[in-house]
Amino acid sequence: MNHLPSPDSSTTFPVDRPTSLAAKCWLDDACIVDIDHFVKTLSGIKAKGVRPDLIGSIITHYACKWIPELSGDPPSPATTTDHHSPPESATASWLKKRFFIETIVSVLPPEKDAAPCSFLLRLLKTAHMVGVDSNYREELEKRVAWRLDQATLKELMIPCFSHVHGTLFNVGLMVRLVKRYVEMELDGLRTGAGVFKVAKLVDAYLAEVAVDPELALPEFMELAGAVPPQARATDDRLYRAIDTYLKTHVNMTKQERKMLCKLIDSQKLSIEASLHAAQNERLPVRSILRVLFSEQAKLHSHIDWNRSFSNSKSPILGLDPHDWCHSSRDIMTLQQMEIKKLKENVMKLERQCHSMQVQIGKLSEKKKRFFSWRKLTMSSNLQGMGTEVGNEQGYDSSSIGRQTPLKGKQGRSKTPKAWRQSTS
Question: Keyword DNA-binding: yes or no (predicted)?
């Protein structure tokens, strides 16, 4: 059997080859059963000055070879019967996996871009499953957080293996990853459009975990608020996740609904989402009114912009038509197209405003009915109280104002005068 060359031997490493081919060149031999021998061989490769991404590819290929779950593909029968090893107990296999993952994490290159994000997430999932030491898990979380913008939703759906929390997925892990990434973004270590990708991932993740009835409101709000508000270009995905959470958790109090809906910026909702929110009975009335007022403000701003556009000479404000187009016919065509689009938008916004005014009218009508019913109830109560007081004081209800109290009449007729008899 051919063994890998020892670290001390003079060997030319295939640095210029593609990453996957170089990894297979060194690790396709079935003799690498001892992980200690692999660590020594890897140290020799590092001493030769091999690129970190190639070392990360070697580690990835080795780990996926001996733990098929790390490859992301279902294990084939060939991988389970390659080494003809006797069957192990569940505890021995569990401990072996834990030791193997801890060793793999310890030999990763210090460069955070050495290993792909998908492999790191599968490694982190297995580390939580087998109960790896907290120091190794923290190291993996740092590496995953560094490349969180390259993750996918399917890889982030890591189950919760703890017996303390009853949730289906490890929401606390997702909160830590997002907060680490945002801290690096604020410190200037990460720049670009990565934070917008992370915001989309968070909203999609919230929509998936919102159907879990065991997910507490503080955890949901903490994850939703971990992303800065400027990272969301639109709040439609966040609104969809909150609506799903409200639909699942029907026993929420009014105060909890208000707290949850404060996360939505009504000015960032699209027209479709605003229409849905205006007719959503699960939202508090204050949130619905906020959406309606923001849409009305948008309508007024669009109308003002249309007026300023009609007064200008060019569809591109501030520019002369001859600076961007040389043909007067093209200028007229573009102007007509822009005016047609603006008219369609204004008509659409007017329809939306009309529907919103109908909703506001319905809400105000409900309030008027409530207050009129309350006034009628109070007047009837006061009339009943007056009748009771009159009966207690001894008044005859049928002759109030015409008769004197009964006690007065009895008092005057109690001691009649004695008439003197005449002697004549």
Answer: no
